[in-house]
Amino acid sequence: MGTVYAAVDSAGLQMAVKVVHPAQAANAEFRARFRREVQLSRRVTGPCLVPVHDADTDSNLPWLATPFVPGPTLDRYLATSGARLFALATGTAAALAAVHEAGIVHRDVKPQNVILAPSGPRVLDFGIAHALDGTSVTRTGM
Which of 20, 87, 119, 138 is deepest in the core (most CB within 10 A)? Predict the structure, then answer.
């Protein structure tokens, strides 16, 4: 899709600049998807997201710049520590899928409510859970 380069902006901040490969830049459909990527990325903000700092989707070689974020990508992390993390994520997701299949919203998923049993994670504490049929047993703080 593109190559990511390290850069420094005019304020001295480290940036990551993704430049689209020439073959993709010549493809109108790809350019439309890239333009959409930039538009959607600019609409979303939050502490665990990387914001778009600047972009030029109409350049000969479209590009987008974001603040540089140090650290490995999740796929690289998984290559070295993946088995444990994968088991935690899939086990917790399976537990929540079962909860949702039963028509319940847990409403209090947090590290304190997941036990790391030898056989995998176990989700507990349905104290503020809500049944989708409208029944609710307790409320927060009780």
Answer: 20
Per-residue model confidence (pLDDT) at position 127 = 83
Question: Which domain, by its residues, includes 111?
Answer: 74-131
Mean pLDDT of all residues in 100-114:
91
Cβ proximity of 129 and 105 under 8 Å? yes
Catalytic hit among 75, 108, 125, 133: 108
pLDDT at 137: 52
- Tell me the CATH number at 7: 3.30.200.20
Q: Is the pLDDT of residue 138 over 90?
A: no
pLDDT at 142: 46
Asked, for residue 105, whether it belongs to a domain, the answer is yes
The domain total for the chain is 2
pTM exceeding the 0.85 threshold for the entire prediction: no
Give catalytic status of residue 108 as yes or no.
Answer: yes
Tell whether 89 and 51 lie within a shared domain: no
